[in-house]
Structures are given as C-alpha cells and as structure tokens.
C-alpha cells in the first residue's frame, strides 16, 4: 500500500489515481477531468482560522448525494452515544475488565462494535465514547460513516484494512489510524478475526499537542503520520450504507460502491501512525513525570490546557530516576482515564491487567499501583531499567465516563479489582523516620 508522509497536520496533500484527474488552478471547473464530479468535504467551519481549517476536495465518479436517499432507522445493537447516563446501574468506583474473546458467530463492523463508556454530548460536539471492536468478518458491499465524531482506532489483535473514500489504510497491532468525521469506509480483515479499541471523539479533531518547553523535537513527529493515496472503485452492487447520526443508526440501500474518489487534495483525510515511532520523554534525575508527556494526539477543549480527549501511550522506555518511586504515584484526578493494554505488561499493574483488557478510573476515583507493584517498586535497586515489550494507552477526558449496559454485564468485568489495594499495609511509625 502506498501512503503519503504528512509534513504537518495543517498542510495539504494531493493524490490522483489517474494522471490528470486533479484539476489545476481551480477546485471546481465547469468540466472536471474524466467526467468526474467535484465535491468538498469540510471537517471545520468555513471561517475556522487557516491553521485549524480542515477540508478536502474530492473528484469522484458519483456525487455523495446519490448515496441512498431513503435512510431508515435500525437497531443500534451495542453502539451507544453520549449523553447516556442512565443505562448502567453500577455504583461508582475503580473498574477493570479482562480481555473479551472474539465471538464465534460471524460479525462485521456494525455487529462487532461495543460501546464501553460515553461522556459529554455528541450533539454539542464535546466528549467521547470508548468502544471495543471484536470483529470476525470483513464488510462486503457494506459501508459505514460516522457523523457524530472521528474514530481513533488502536489495533490490538489482528490486522485491519480500512478502505476509505480517500484510499486504503492498513494497520497492525501497535499502530493506530484516525477516520475523520463523515468519511465513508469499508473494514476488511486481511488475516482473520481482530480486536481493537476505538475512541470516538465528538469534539475538535485530534491534533499534535504543543511541546512547550520540550522544544522542537520529541513525542510524535509530524513526518511519521501517513495519509493514503487515492484508490477508487467503480463497482455496481447491492450494497448498504450505515450512518451513525446524533446517536441513531440508519441504513440506506445503495447500488454502487461509494468508495469512488479518483483524486483528492486537502487536509481532511484518514491517517495512520506507528506508536513505536513515538519518542518518549522522562525524568532523568528524580520523581515520576506527569503522564501528559506521553500524549500522542489531543482534542483541545475551550479551556486552555484541558483536553476534550487526550490519547497517551506508555511505550518501551528507560526508567532512570534516582531515589524515586518509579511507577505512577497514587492519585486522584480531575480527568477520567480509560486504559487498554496492547501488549506486554503495564508496570503499575503487573497482575490482572492483560493485553486486550481495559480499566476505567473516573474523575476523583483514587488509583495507583497495586500491592505487588508497590512492594516491587519500594524494594527495587534503582539502577537504570529498560521497560521492554510493553505498550499501554489511555483515553483521558475532562468529562466523567459513564459505562454502558454492555460493559456492566460483561462476564470479564473483575468484581475483585478493588482487592488489589486491600493488602497495602499501614506503614506509619512516628518514632522512625526511616529515610
């Protein structure tokens, strides 16, 4: 698969699958090349400042207004959208789930997307949802578009191929892709059943965080993000287009593939990133740094420095700080943290948190290393240690995350999760400073 390398999130890209399919000098000529239709898709308001304006011009075989004129509402299965605050009846608290097996029954994208948490309000374009994708069947002549938000897909098991309007994006475990709001795609499974985590971002599109005092380098580099080249289909079929809109799921029958864009240019497009290219920063002498230094992408909010959603990762890295409790400290947080483990072992939870599993620590719910991690961290010789074969991530948001009925009833939910802290001893001795 051919992809473009991004030279910056605000830059424009262009690609054509037929020579000369892109008009030169204007976007909507009276007669576009090859009898194509010119169409613009905007991911921001027209007057958004230029650095944040998202739009692309598409040159396609049929205009998207022909993508079925008769949508009918259908059952949304396990897909939920914020606000969804009354569905689950569990009391508040720390929560964790073991990996969920991929069902034996065949299921494509719509059948296999299970919402775990929601927060904010999709119609107000704020907040997010966390989904678990457990998929065993490729989509065939069926397509999906999400008008409620963009999808950030974190591959955990198996390969995923997103054939989008603007081209093909393949990801493997350890890679992510982002499908912008409204972009149509078909999901295929090149290697069989797969598992992924998905963040549905209702707010401002994901972008690279500012580095601040870090300077010009480190964290995720613009050059490592890739966008697809045009890959059009001209195919008649008995197809279905699923559309998620304001929390509802709708279906339209179509008689051709909507993946018929022959050329495009702009900056509103799918992209992928290999998380192993992230350049982590860390504490070189003392203390455990805030997890914000592991932010790959951020969706800003109207409060400066407070994210609608942050996507952070905890990759392989060196731990070298002196006289320091190296795992994450015990803390309560105004932000809410949904975590998943792609592979390996997470240093703060060596037991019970497994690849494919997930945890939720909502705002002001205390959490931190379990007893095993605490004992190991307090007794370890503090030589430099390389954390290897590990990749965890976090969807962190300023909103409280409400769990769904699906997540409540999952047999993999660990009712004894809180017991991981029960054996932490009382260590206080006013007669022994013990330093």
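-> sequence recovered:
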């Amino acid at each position: 698969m051919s992809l473009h390398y991004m030279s910056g999130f605000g830059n424009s890209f262009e690609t054509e699958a037929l020579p000369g399919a892109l008009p030169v000098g204007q976007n909507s000529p009276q007669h576009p090349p090859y009898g194509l239709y010119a169409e613009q898709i905007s991911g921001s308001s027209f007057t958004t400042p230029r650095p944040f304006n998202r739009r692309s011009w598409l040159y396609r075989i049929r205009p998207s207004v022909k993508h079925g004129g008769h949508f009918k509402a259908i059952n949304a299965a396990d897909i939920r959208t914020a606000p969804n605050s009354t569905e689950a009846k569990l009391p508040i608290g720390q929560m964790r789930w073991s990996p969920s097996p991929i069902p034996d029954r065949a299921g494509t994208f719509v059948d296999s997307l299970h919402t775990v948490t929601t927060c904010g309000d999709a119609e107000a374009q704020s907040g997010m949802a966390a989904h678990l994708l457990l998929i065993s069947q490729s989509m065939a002549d069926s397509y999906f578009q999400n008008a409620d938000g963009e999808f950030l897909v974190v591959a955990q098991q198996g390969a995923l191929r997103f054939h989008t309007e603007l081209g093909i994006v393949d990801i493997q475990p350890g890679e992510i892709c982002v499908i912008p709001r409204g972009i149509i795609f078909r999901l295929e499974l090149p290697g069989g059943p797969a598992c992924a985590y998905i963040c549905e971002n209702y707010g401002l599109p994901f972008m690279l965080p500012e580095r601040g005092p870090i300077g010009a380098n480190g964290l995720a580099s613009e050059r490592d993000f890739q966008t697809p080249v045009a890959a059009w289909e001209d195919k008649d079929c008995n197809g279905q287009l699923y559309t998620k809109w304001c929390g509802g799921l709708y279906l339209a029958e179509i008689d051709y593939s909507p993946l018929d864009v022959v050329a495009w240019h702009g900056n509103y497009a799918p992209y992928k990133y290999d998380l192993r290219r992230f350049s982590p920063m860390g504490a070189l002498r003392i203390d455990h740094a805030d997890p914000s230094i592991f932010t790959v992408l951020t969706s800003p909010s109207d409060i400066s420095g407070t994210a609608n959603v942050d996507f952070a990762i905890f990759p392989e890295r060196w731990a070298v700080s002196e006289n320091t409790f190296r795992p994450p400290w015990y803390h309560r947080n105004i932000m809410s943290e949904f975590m998943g483990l792609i592979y390996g072992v997470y240093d703060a939870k060596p037991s019970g948190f497994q690849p494919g599993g997930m945890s939720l620590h909502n705002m002001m719910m205390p959490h931190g290393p379990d007893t095993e991690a605490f004992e190991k961290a307090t007794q370890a010789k503090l030589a430099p240690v390389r954390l290897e074969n590990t990749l965890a991530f976090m969807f962190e948001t300023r909103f409280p995350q409400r769990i769904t009925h699906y997540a409540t009833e999952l047999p993999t939910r660990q009712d004894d999760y809180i017991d991981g802290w029960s054996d932490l001893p009382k260590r206080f001795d006013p007669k022994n400073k013990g330093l």
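The two ends are 58 Å apart (CA to CA).
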